[in-house]
Amino acid sequence: MMRKIVPTIFAKNRKQFKERLKKLIESKKDIQIDFMDGKFVKTRGIKINDVPNLSKYNQRFEAHLMTLNPSSYIKELKDKGFKKIIFHYESIKDRNKVLGLLLYIRTQGMKAVIALNPETDIEKIREIWDYADGVLFMGVHPGKENQKFIPKVYQKIRQLRKMNKKIKIQVDGGVNLKVAEKLRKIRVNILNTGSFISSSPIDSLKELDKVFT
Questions:
Q1: Is 199 a residue whose pLDDT tops 90?
Q2: What is the DSSP track for the chain?
Q3: Structural domains in the chain?
Q4: pTM
């Protein structure tokens, strides 16, 4: 089973974004950039215009939309060079509209992943997860750094893996070495990490690689 770690850039302003991008740009093949609108989550993050043209880098970039109305971001993100879009079920809630956005993202040549907050029942997406390129479980409440992993999320991951053996499962938030090892054991495919690696990205990613990949 292929597993990988994707470092995350969580930034509240352009200066912080540039600093964190510079630190991470050579660390991994895949990098996630967070977008927050101050509405879906309380924190307001960078704008799409703050992101450079990503085609000049060798990495694959994914966008995590912690925003209302995620469909309004898709064209700009594609133009910037993003290869994967993660959006929250809770930002739309209507199952047919969620399905429509999944299909739209994929017709634009990008991967489409549904994110679920810790409280959201996975049954909400049971009829549509086959149209997604994966499901991302939030290990914390979105929009804030340095939070502890919420233990009940482990059971939700096990539940989905039992129901769907093939779907790619991604986890974001609250990661440390102990959490990473548990997530490997319950067959998580992709691990996002931001706070854990912030002070020393290269060394921290090497430590995570040892227990997860």
A1: no
A2: ---EEEEEE--SSHHHHHHHHHHHTTT-SEEEEEEEBSSSSS-B---GGGS--GGGSSSEEEEEEESSSGGGGHHHHHHHT--EEEEEGGGT--HHHHHHHHHHHHHTT-EEEEEE-TTS-GGGGTTTGGGSSEEEEESS-TT-SS----THHHHHHHHHHHH-SSS-EEEESS--HHHHHHHHHTT--EEEESGGGSSSHHHHHHHHHHHH-
A3: 4-212 (3.20.20.70)
A4: 0.96
